[in-house]
Amino acid sequence: MTRLDLFIDRMVSQRACLDHAIAETALIDGPVFELGLGNGRTYHHLRERIGDARPIYVFERAIASHPESTPPDERVILGDVTETLPATLQRFGPVASLIHADLGGHNAQKNDIFARKVSPLIEPLLAEGGMMVSSDRMYFDTLTEMPLPGGAVQGRCFIYRR
Ligand code: SAM
């Protein structure tokens, strides 16, 4: 597999998993949390698909997204997620209908260490029936790993549900 193959598989899987999770959680009216804005491509996809049905809050260290993919200030939760996720649990409680995490970089080992660190911070935020989509395998005690939808590639995206 080339790096281009891996990249394409990740993008195709992200879209398939996000579309699936958006549909599966459509009847839960809690907020959507986007962890890692980056260029804002997946935020833009979430915003276009969800519209005004649910508020989308974006967690990011520093905003550097495409202008068309930049969330309004009041929907940005700025800072390191290891600090902002616990603060968000205090602020909102366990109400998220959908959480998408794409926080990793190019080093798979570092991504895995970070996934282990943030899993217990993400887990309590999810509402009953809520779903979590991640580019990295997560380490949850109380969420169930779900089968991937058609079009997604095994190992390139992961879905969990409470
Ligand atoms: N999904 C995005 C897109 O479609 O454009 C790409 C996200 S990019 C791969 C990862 C982002 O996560 C980066 O912008 C980085 O700043 C952010 N990030 C990584 N670790 C973080 C942390 N500990 N706290 C907050 N943001 C973090």
UniProtKB/TrEMBL annotation:
Highest rank taxon of the organism: Bacteria
Stored InterPro entries: Methyltransf_put, SAM-dependent_MTases_sf
The protein's name in its UniProt record: S-adenosyl-L-methionine methyltransferase
Organism encoding this protein: Pseudooceanicola lipolyticus
